[in-house]
Amino acid sequence: MATASSQASLLLQKQLRDLAKHPVDGFSAGLVDDSNVFEWQVTIIGPPETLYDGGYFNAIMSFPQNYPNSPPTVRFTSEMWHPNVYPDGRVCISILHPPGDDPNGYELAKNAKSLAPLHPSVFDSMAPIFIDITILLRHDPKYRKVESIVLSIISMLSSPNDESPANIEAAKDWREKQDEFKKKVRRAVRKSQEML
C-alpha cells in the first residue's frame, strides 16, 4: 500500500509532466531541485491589461506530504505589492487554505457578495438554500491541481480582494491611494523584468 507521501509524489510528478507536455498560458513551472518534487519554482506572467502586465513574478510552491488533501503554500520571491499577498510574499487566497481555515474572513466576505440562491423543488417548504460553489470546490482535492492554483493566483492579480486583505497597506493603497498603488506595482513589474 502506497503512503500518502508517495502518492503525493507520484501525483506531483504527473502534474509536472502534464505541464511540460501541455504548457498553460500565463505561467511556467519546474522543480527548484530535481531531487525534490515537493518544491516548485513558478514564474507567473503578469496578466495582460492589468497593472501587473509585463511582469515576470517568481514564486515557490511548497507541497505538503499529503497533497492534494492539504494545499501547498505559495510565496512570491519577486517583489509583489498586492492586497492578497503578505509582506513576506505568501499568497492568501481560498484555494490555498486548508478546509475550515479562513484566517482573514475571506469566505465571509465572499459569501456576503456572491451567494447564489438555489430553490430545489424537493424542498419547496424550506427556505432557499444558499451556496457558494467555490467554497465547496476548494475543499475537493481533485480541484487542487497546480494548474488550478496558479490560474487562481493569476486571477487574484487581475481582481484583488481588499475586503479581507493579507497586506493591509496594499489594500489601503488599492482603496484610497490608487496612484500610490499603481506606482508600487509598476516598480515591482520593473524589478521583475530586471531579474530576467
TrEMBL record:
UniProt keyword S-adenosyl-L-methionine present: no
Domain of life: Eukaryota
Domain UBC core, residue spans: 7-194
SUPFAM superfamilies on file: UBC-like
Molecular-function GO terms, alphabetical: ATP binding; transferase activity
SMART domains on file: UBCc
Family of the protein in this entry: Belongs to the ubiquitin-conjugating enzyme family.
The protein's name in its UniProt record: Ubiquitin-conjugating enzyme E2 7
